[in-house]
Amino acid sequence: MTSKESSHTSEKLSPPITDDGPEQLSDRLAWSRIRQTLREPFAEFFGTFILIMFGDGVVAQVMLSDDQKGSYQSISWGWGLGVMLGVYSGGASGGHLNPAVTLANCVFRKFPWRKFPIYALAQVLGAFCASGIVYANYKSAIDVYEGGAHIRTVPGYSDTATAGIFCTYPAVFMTRTGQFFSEFIASVLLMFCIFALQGDSRLGTGAGNFTPLCLFFLFFGIGACFGWETGYGINLARDFGPRLMSFFLGYGKEVWTASNYYFWIPMVAPFFGCLFGGLLYDTFIFTGESPINTPWMGLRRLVVPDRKAKVDS
Amino acid sequence: MTSKESSHTSEKLSPPITDDGPEQLSDRLAWSRIRQTLREPFAEFFGTFILIMFGDGVVAQVMLSDDQKGSYQSISWGWGLGVMLGVYSGGASGGHLNPAVTLANCVFRKFPWRKFPIYALAQVLGAFCASGIVYANYKSAIDVYEGGAHIRTVPGYSDTATAGIFCTYPAVFMTRTGQFFSEFIASVLLMFCIFALQGDSRLGTGAGNFTPLCLFFLFFGIGACFGWETGYGINLARDFGPRLMSFFLGYGKEVWTASNYYFWIPMVAPFFGCLFGGLLYDTFIFTGESPINTPWMGLRRLVVPDRKAKVDS
Amino acid sequence: MTSKESSHTSEKLSPPITDDGPEQLSDRLAWSRIRQTLREPFAEFFGTFILIMFGDGVVAQVMLSDDQKGSYQSISWGWGLGVMLGVYSGGASGGHLNPAVTLANCVFRKFPWRKFPIYALAQVLGAFCASGIVYANYKSAIDVYEGGAHIRTVPGYSDTATAGIFCTYPAVFMTRTGQFFSEFIASVLLMFCIFALQGDSRLGTGAGNFTPLCLFFLFFGIGACFGWETGYGINLARDFGPRLMSFFLGYGKEVWTASNYYFWIPMVAPFFGCLFGGLLYDTFIFTGESPINTPWMGLRRLVVPDRKAKVDS
Amino acid sequence: MTSKESSHTSEKLSPPITDDGPEQLSDRLAWSRIRQTLREPFAEFFGTFILIMFGDGVVAQVMLSDDQKGSYQSISWGWGLGVMLGVYSGGASGGHLNPAVTLANCVFRKFPWRKFPIYALAQVLGAFCASGIVYANYKSAIDVYEGGAHIRTVPGYSDTATAGIFCTYPAVFMTRTGQFFSEFIASVLLMFCIFALQGDSRLGTGAGNFTPLCLFFLFFGIGACFGWETGYGINLARDFGPRLMSFFLGYGKEVWTASNYYFWIPMVAPFFGCLFGGLLYDTFIFTGESPINTPWMGLRRLVVPDRKAKVDS
């Protein structure tokens, strides 16, 4: 999960590639060169892809089978293990799977800023593609559930809405403030616990290579404890990518307008939440290298990120 | 989980801090000095904070959604993973998260007595704050459930009582003795198993860095096996902190008077239970350094704890 | 879990005890000498004690709360984590918690025969005591459920029977052969998988210190896959101990006569099952030291176990 | 799980066998020689055996008890832990338990081609035998459920069909394309994640000896997210072996003809799915030795597999 590790490994890897036999050959192949360059975006793409395959898949199965093939608890399970397996698949890039997590790593863990846009794009694309495949897989079931091959509806506009399979729609009783607050809190917990699981080498805490397993529990927990009100999007890629796909799939502009243009909240709130969560952890617990532990609380670095980033990589 | 580790790490840390670059600078900052001093209370505060966020959060979600977004089993899950993630977050201080556990560590594991009040205070505060945030997050849902923005009721006084989200209220059929006994037994299991999971270096037993994961199972188990009668408070901080918050939030004096002033039982019973559980483990299983394995069963030490504590730290 | 480890550790321990300070003192204390001798029985006692506390506890909670505070799945969870925590608690003795497992270890893993009766006794006593405490804890709830403080009934003799909390009673449609077969199969799986989890040092397989965690899954699995027909006693201590307790508690002689004297099946079948399971594993998978891999398939050893046992210890 | 490991260990083992005492003797015994030769088929046989015992067992218990002794979630649990325990039992051979996984290892991980037929046969036989024992164990319950000792029916031909205990039958609304696609997708996820869990030594990713535990989550996930439409056969051995057994047990030719000869889909689709999943992983993530990283994308090797295989072993 640590961006440091990941960026290091990618350094470590480049040299050996050239000396040992098969790789040397493969270096002459166009594909291997492309791969070399795009390893991290690929890893983020597939990590998020796996996350959404399991996450949207479990929602589809539970909803479309009318809770016969699962329950709300299975949904928490599905998202939890989606994260776990996604992080294993995306290990090469640190397995962020979430732009807000990448951002927090840039701010608090010296993750190179220039990588942020690439990561975010790869994550959104991965979620976008996965949700399309989930749709293809459950198309017949959706037709049956919606009552017709060309009927696609959004929660709040019909009782057999299936758009909730792909992205989150808030509970009806929620106020706008409540929606934002719920996403914010969940994101704070997310980032605080991710940092806590990565732990603090100076204190010998953290979950080491249990981390992906513990992330299962973390996401299960967020789903079981804060998943009702807004469906815990807490991730721009996870929510926006599939929402876009559902729009293209013909769910209509309601995917954007539903609940008074709710769609932007799970895109924006997680960034604030993850930054605040990281700030809390670094301010009160973390003793390693963090802007919080440097003079001016590292604010100078925020002013001139580019130079800093160059130094890192 | 071991207090020994934690106290040691905090010693180990002080020296290096001063020599390496960024830290040296940061030592000049007021905040870093404060942090240095308050690391352990902070860790306990946030550990308990995380525990209650997930624990009270899952009860809120299950209760307020009328079991649609979870079941009793999810509640056991929520408390279990709350402990697990809380212990990871509070690793720097040993992750007690429970005054009774801290006490047992003072008595059986040479944890410095002078730290007990600080730990207990940090734990209660952490639980207090977390429950407030859970309330803020579920306010709208509570209004709907209670049937009005200003209606806040306690179990036994209405059918839509929501005070049970924050702290425990016993089942109606329980006798006073039964209530105490149930909390006592659960606390005995708690402490006995915590010591068993920490294991015995001389016997090469214990769960090592699985411990937090196993604590998930331990708490799930206590909830699934002994959670019905009294809601397994088994923790002064977990029960009193949120109860106080719910009082301030306007649930009325019933939070104290309910079930004939039940509130003091989950505050007192855990101390007896954890001491007895630790006594059992050290008497029959533990072979390491413990007052039980010293002459007079370490009673002399209990008489003059202060001097002893000084020696430790 | 391995008896070899356990017996070794107990050897390893004896010498150091005498040299280091506190222990040296404690050696002069009567209690420490007793403990030294009885360490393994104590460990088995408390391991089985923990197992039954959680196992019988979860059945009590689910049954008495009419499935409101749990479901059949929680019962599988409870037994699974009871085993897991029991094995951690009983690590000093190898954590058999089951006479049939101890027997299989004597036959296939050179566990000293002379220890068998002591282990079996400690296991039965542990289960016996734990079930008594579970009864004490749920007494009021049992009174409510049975409909009176002096009514205690056995499955098949009333609709509100609570004897099933303590020990197993088969489903009505089962034939005698079916009952035995079901217990036999479950025990075969039990022993085969325990040996598989301990693994084979020569093949580098096995779960290492994951073993107790995997045992959770193993018991959850036996409960979820073969737990319906006979309630998977698969353990003389687990079934006979609590049955005896329930008899003393006034459930009447029906605890023995129910289902045509079913009670002896979970006492006898596990021994056959575990021996056969161990035989399968050692015959087809195991490459380490096992009578199967010695001439005469180790039958000679079975003839003169005592001498062999002496050699071991 | 890696075929490389397994084949290596089997090499590593042969020499030492001959030098140390007990083994030297046993080498003179016919059985030990047979075992030596057949170690890997035996491991695959018992690994698949354990998988089906738990997998078919849980379906039987949940179905025959009318969801009283479990739910759809328990079924996902049962298959998941069946895989986990099966992989531990079959560790000596790499624990493939699935011909499609073995094939993918041949193509992408240099697993000797000549071992493929032996593995596949052992896997089918293991599943075949296990399903027979599950039938024997639940015979009385099946009689009750079907309504007679000689009535055995297949889903779609009666409301009390029990053939679904042994092998998979698709949901009625599925089109032929949908059936194939669903099995294909699930197999892609299966192989991609297995490779991801084995990880990439050059990137320091993967789950190490957590792998079997993570496989539990992987299979739980496939069951919870893609298990509804076709019952996730995704394994020739798991589906064909028990189907054959159910045919011999008198479920009639409907086991083949049901859903318009569905039976061949879970036999064929997994091979395509696993190959594609492995291709994806090696093309975009894997940096180790793989045909994808060699010139001609290793196509030459596919042309002359035999020579290559000889080189390997």
TrEMBL record, chains A, B, C, D:
The record lists the organism as Lipomyces tetrasporus
Q: What is its main location?
A: membrane
Q: Where are the transmembrane segments?
A: 42-64, 76-97, 118-138, 180-198, 210-229, 261-281
One Pfam family of this protein, by short name? MIP
Return the NCBIfam families for the record. Answer: MIP
Keyword Transport included in the entry's annotation? yes
Q: Where is the composition biased (Basic and acidic residues)?
A: 1-11
Instruction: Give the UniProt keywords, A-Z.
Output: Membrane, Repeat, Transmembrane, Transmembrane helix, Transport
What PROSITE patterns does the record tag this protein with? MIP (PS00221)
Record's family? Belongs to the MIP/aquaporin (TC 1.A.8) family.
- Cellular localization per UniProt: Membrane
Q: What InterPro entries has UniProt attached to this entry? A: Aquaporin-like (IPR023271), MIP (IPR000425), MIP/Aquaporin (IPR050363), MIP_CS (IPR022357)
Q: Where is this region: Disordered?
A: 1-23
State what protein this is by name: Aquaporin-3
